[in-house]
Amino acid sequence: MDPSGVCQPLNMGGKAFVFPKESENSFVILTAQPTKPLKAFTVCLRVYTDLTRDYSLFSYATKTQDNEILLFMGKTGMYSVSVGGADVFFKPPESSAPTHYCATWESSSGIVELWVDGKPMVRKSLKRGHSLGAEASIILGQEQDAYTGGFDKNQSLVGDIGDVNMWDHVLSLEEISTVYAGGTFSPNVLNWRALRYQMSGEVFVKRQLWP
Amino acid sequence: MDPSGVCQPLNMGGKAFVFPKESENSFVILTAQPTKPLKAFTVCLRVYTDLTRDYSLFSYATKTQDNEILLFMGKTGMYSVSVGGADVFFKPPESSAPTHYCATWESSSGIVELWVDGKPMVRKSLKRGHSLGAEASIILGQEQDAYTGGFDKNQSLVGDIGDVNMWDHVLSLEEISTVYAGGTFSPNVLNWRALRYQMSGEVFVKRQLWP
Amino acid sequence: MDPSGVCQPLNMGGKAFVFPKESENSFVILTAQPTKPLKAFTVCLRVYTDLTRDYSLFSYATKTQDNEILLFMGKTGMYSVSVGGADVFFKPPESSAPTHYCATWESSSGIVELWVDGKPMVRKSLKRGHSLGAEASIILGQEQDAYTGGFDKNQSLVGDIGDVNMWDHVLSLEEISTVYAGGTFSPNVLNWRALRYQMSGEVFVKRQLWP
Amino acid sequence: MDPSGVCQPLNMGGKAFVFPKESENSFVILTAQPTKPLKAFTVCLRVYTDLTRDYSLFSYATKTQDNEILLFMGKTGMYSVSVGGADVFFKPPESSAPTHYCATWESSSGIVELWVDGKPMVRKSLKRGHSLGAEASIILGQEQDAYTGGFDKNQSLVGDIGDVNMWDHVLSLEEISTVYAGGTFSPNVLNWRALRYQMSGEVFVKRQLWP
Amino acid sequence: MDPSGVCQPLNMGGKAFVFPKESENSFVILTAQPTKPLKAFTVCLRVYTDLTRDYSLFSYATKTQDNEILLFMGKTGMYSVSVGGADVFFKPPESSAPTHYCATWESSSGIVELWVDGKPMVRKSLKRGHSLGAEASIILGQEQDAYTGGFDKNQSLVGDIGDVNMWDHVLSLEEISTVYAGGTFSPNVLNWRALRYQMSGEVFVKRQLWP
Ligand SMILES: [Ca+2]
Ligand SMILES: [Ca+2]
Ligand SMILES: [Ca+2]
Ligand SMILES: [Ca+2]
Ligand SMILES: [Ca+2]
Ligand SMILES: [Ca+2]
Ligand SMILES: [Ca+2]
Ligand SMILES: [Ca+2]
Ligand SMILES: [Ca+2]
Ligand SMILES: [Ca+2]
Ligand SMILES: [Zn+2]
């Protein structure tokens, strides 16, 4: 597999990536729009899993920093957002249903927001002044400890993931409400309705289990 | 009793099989439509029990594999779906009410879905590429460890079971919602409204206790 | 007091028997319609108590079997229905409100149903083929261990009981829903709206506390 | 202070007595209508407190019996109603909101009813045949162990009390529902809308905190 | 920074102060309207935090009394209101959502009210007859143990605070309901829509996370 290969964008509306088994070699690699270094971002996605251990939701690695952006569920139910290798923690309410997440960060204040099913957690901050590396390996299903590698089956996702979108700025409250409700705002880094991706290992594209 | 005997199909609409006592010899044997080996299936049924031990919901055995299809409630509240002798596990919410189950499997991906009261559990997979044996002994009320036998009273059902239907393909989300709500989709393997069955032991056909 | 004495039927609509104190000599004896031996029955009643110990809800004794019919709350919250001296057990949800019970039994299958506040518990069976003795002593407020006697204050009811009706057949789902909602179906063994009864000890007829 | 002194009746509608601090000398003494010995009564009132210890809600003492009528919250959440020095106990649901109580008693049966926020507890009985002494000292905020005295700060009320009304008979279900909903039935022993009272110590008349 | 410096009032409607990190030097100092010594007050504000330790919500210090007014969350979930150095305690229901508080005090009775999300806690009293010092240092984000100082990072706020208003009298029930619902009553000590403030350390003005 060549993660730098060019692939056609596909409309994934109504579909999900399904990882039905624990593994250390099943994943999806996403190709971002050509971008300059980011001073802010919003990532939204929906996940359905019954894992009780750690797992990665979104792993954005550069050649020098494997946790350049990382959305991660810890085993104690603490959710972490990492930027540039630093971490902040959130304690969302537990849920056994498909769950929608949006994470935002801006360099000017360092403030991180996490929205769970359309509700904001308390804001935290980290890496004020940082710029995100532009050449990134963006992986679903595995957590990178190296650029497109360093996978650990004990941090892999088992379940469904979909509606993955990414913007180069912080969405407003109203925009996040709309995204949570299923609306769209022409995401300019990753666009679920025109997604360039390559699948590796035991991962399937199936109809979404959520409405 | 001759499980290979021909019997007239009966409309069981509004009715249920009632197993009012624990036993190792009360059961119902169902006769499937003449079928070729299956590459996929959906089985739906409704069960009402207050058992706190293990019990079988649907036991489909072939001469070489007693757990060719098995829907089974474990004693810890873990629900298992077996295909071709392999198992995956689900943790549905606990319920003391009559509960509707749909289980699906397809050979191409091996993905198993379990729907409990119209809600999907997280998908798992097993036995990718397998074909289900066509000549089967399909039993309600007992778990088979041999073709039409090998019963264990500690795995028998005590309670009501009804609305048992089976298809040779995976139903869509919309179809499963309709089935859960009481609608029908001409099931082509087992059809509750034209059911060929034989009862053995202390089992009764009574009006359903659910609406 | 002469339990065989003839008394006028009274309309108890909107009223309840109140047992405000624990005792071994306060009770109500009910006179049934002249009946032949029963092959089935439905008994419905409403009880309001804050007892945490065992107590009897309905005690129907013959000269040879004190537990010919017995509706009984055990101390662990397990409810039992006895017919002809045999018992089956049910685990209704706990309630601190006035609670409506209907118990049914039929000789042909032995199936016992228990409906609590209009919801059916899982069916059980006992005494298939049995006939209920017709000459019975029917007592509210005490549990009989002998014909019109053998009372135990630790099994007495403290609280209110009302809407006691009995039929010589099994009511349908629709009929039980109607009875639970306050409707009536000309009960032919005991009729709360034309009840023959005698009170003994500290028991009072008062307005119902339920709507 | 002279508890036998004559004072003008005041309309306390929309107001409450507030005891903001624990004490053994803050209380309100109420003057009842001239009455003959009572054979029945209903007392209703509303209380808002966050005490977790014992406290008195309504203390009606005669020269020979300090607990002639006593509404009292025990430390285990057991509520007691005392008449003529005897006690019965009730277990209302716990509440952290302002709570409305009505207690009734009638001499003919001895039956005591307790209504909490418009819902009846299970009836009990005591002091059948008793008559309540007419010359009484009626105190809010303290529990009397002697006529207008014998106070204990550990039984004092800290919080708000209001809507105190008393009748010389047992109200019907409909009347209690109306009183709970804020309606009135010309109370003839104590009337919150024409209340004769004297305050002593740190007690204030303030707007009600409940609607 | 010069807390006595004059600054222009700003309309903070729809905005919040965000303290994204624990610190001992991030805070906001508010400038009150020129006032005479206060005999009563109402302070309302909204806070969103996931702290499980102690923290200050509103710290109003004079040169002689650092806790002249202090709204403070204790680590056990007990909320305290301090006036003139004395404390009363309240136990509000736990909440993980943004929470609205109004605290009132009047000198004439000493009564303190606390309203949490529009619901009154049980009233308490303290410092009857006291007058509040007029020359005050009013701080958000830190708890003062000295005039504009004596900060402790273990009592700092991490999270959002907004809608801070203060009056020189006790608001009525209706007024507090209106404030909770987002209405305004020309606050005459501190006015969120015309707020004079200076920020120090890592604190940001951001859009509110609550509606
Ligand atoms: Ca990593
Ligand atoms: Ca890793
Ligand atoms: Ca087996
Ligand atoms: Ca077996
Ligand atoms: Ca007995
Ligand atoms: Ca007995
Ligand atoms: Ca006393
Ligand atoms: Ca006392
Ligand atoms: Ca301080
Ligand atoms: Ca301090
Ligand atoms: Zn002072």
From TrEMBL, chains A, B, C, D, E:
Any one biological process term the GO annotation gives: acute-phase response
GO molecular function: complement component C1q complex binding; low-density lipoprotein particle binding; metal ion binding
Keyword Calcium: yes
Main location, first listed in the record: secreted
UniProt keyword annotations, A-Z: Acute phase, Calcium, Disulfide bond, Metal-binding, Secreted, Signal
Free-text remark on how the cofactor is bound: Binds 2 calcium ions per subunit.
Cofactor annotation: Ca(2+)
Residues covered by the Pentraxin (PTX) domain: 13-211
Entry GO CC: extracellular space
Highest taxon in the source lineage: Eukaryota
Compartments in which it is found: Secreted
Function: Displays several functions associated with host defense: it promotes agglutination, bacterial capsular swelling, phagocytosis and complement fixation through its calcium-dependent binding to phosphorylcholine. Can interact with DNA and histones and may scavenge nuclear material released from damaged circulating cells.
Quaternary organization: Homopentamer. Pentaxin (or pentraxin) have a discoid arrangement of 5 non-covalently bound subunits.
Annotated family: Belongs to the pentraxin family.
Protein name, UniProt field: Pentraxin family member
Organism listed in the record: Catagonus wagneri
